[in-house]
Design a protein that fits this description.
Number of strands: 8
Distance between the termini: 24 Å
Structural class: alpha/beta
Radius of gyration: 19 Å
Largest sheet: 8 strands, parallel
Low-confidence stretches: none
Helix content: 40-55%
Number of helices: 13
Oligomer: single chain
Strand content: 5-15%
Mean pLDDT: 94
Order of helices and strands: HHHEHHEHEHEHHEHEHEHEH
Strand order of the largest sheet: 7-6-5-4-3-2-1-8
Shape: globular
């Protein structure tokens, strides 16, 4: 995964950001229809999508058993007979990472070792996910605790109240402190909570500030907001990533999350990355999809590609 060292906060750059909503909506609408992939090309894109999934369980009723099942599925995301039929059986396909609450990181570490997937990254949500409405010192302690338990990636949430009041300097300082708590060996993914930010201009500004503060990834949402990952929001954020890269030379990843449930959705998001940022941003080190149920539909579509019929529910193991 690329490392973004960040830069000094440039308020001139941030304050000068303006998003043309009608233009964004027009461009986003064409992305859903302009590029389609079929047959073997679609199967290849779906396998690529699998490798970019942050396979997630973030429920109040998470147990050790849930995490064990999640981790086994992370190591074996697609049935072996399907991979063999597509000539991909020896490629060691796994998901991009597993994502759990900090209290479940230890379970994830043990489960991945048992399943033979110790190399799969473990992402932990932190900083009072999903609302972030806890004292800042507590948020920093949660980051340290998750890393101590074995997390290799940290997904933090920004203080949306600061963003809505335009206190970008404070947002920058908080993210920068979280980056310092992560150190150089743990990657920081910053959740903007775009459904709470009100306007696409705020989304663009939040994206810039997060990247300036050193975020290695910027992420759309927690999955708990009323509105999560939408194509206009995604387009706005990847344009910010592109501008930041052109001005600084630092590559920052992108992670849409929330409401991405179908194989068709995953192809649309891959198309966005290819169109706006290029092939390099279609790989797990710069692109992730936060999802819990998406993998089931992708496997179902690949089953159809191989056999010509759709699988019954009991034929595909749950994640």
């Amino acid at each position: 995964m690329a490392y973004n060292p960040g830069m000094e906060l440039d308020m001139g750059w941030v304050n000068g950001a303006v998003v043309d909503l009608p233009a964004v909506n027009r461009r986003a609408a064409t992305l859903l229809t302009k590029r389609t992939v079929k047959k073997s090309w679609q199967a290849a894109w779906l396998l690529r999508a699998v490798t970019c999934i942050d396979l997630t369980t973030l429920s109040g009723d998470d147990t050790v058993t849930n995490v064990q099942r999640l981790c086994f599925k992370a190591c074996n995301p697609i049935r072996q007979d399907l991979l063999d039929a597509m000539g991909m059986g020896d490629y060691g396909i796994t998901v991009g990472a597993v994502c759990v609450y900090s209290a479940r990181v230890k379970d994830a570490v043990q489960s991945l070792k048992q399943a033979g997937g110790a190399a799969i990254p473990i992402a932990s949500v932190a900083t009072g996910f999903p609302a972030g409405q806890v004292p800042f010192e507590t948020r920093l302690k949660e980051i340290s605790m998750a890393i101590g338990l074995g997390a290799t990636e940290i997904d933090i949430v920004i203080s949306r109240d600061l963003a809505l009041s335009g206190d970008w300097g404070k947002v920058y300082e908080e993210i920068k402190a979280c980056k310092a708590a992560c150190g150089e060996n743990v990657h920081l993914k910053t959740i903007l909570g775009t459904g709470d930010l009100g306007t696409l201009t705020n989304v663009y500004k939040a994206s810039l500030v997060a990247m300036m503060a050193g975020s290695d990834f910027i992420k759309t949402s927690t999955g708990k907001e009323g509105v999560n990952a939408t194509m206009p929001v995604g387009l706005t954020m990847v344009r910010a990533i592109r501008e930041y890269f052109h001005k600084t030379g630092f590559k920052v990843g992108f992670k849409p999350a929330g409401g991405i449930r179908t194989a068709k959705d995953s192809c649309a998001w891959l198309a966005l990355m290819k169109e706006e940022l290029g092939d390099e941003w279609m790989r797990a080190d710069l692109f992730r999809i936060g999802a819990s149920s998406l993998l089931t539909d992708i496997e179902r579509q690949l089953y159809h590609f191989v056999t010509g019929r759709y699988a019954a529910a009991h034929q595909l193991p749950m994640a």
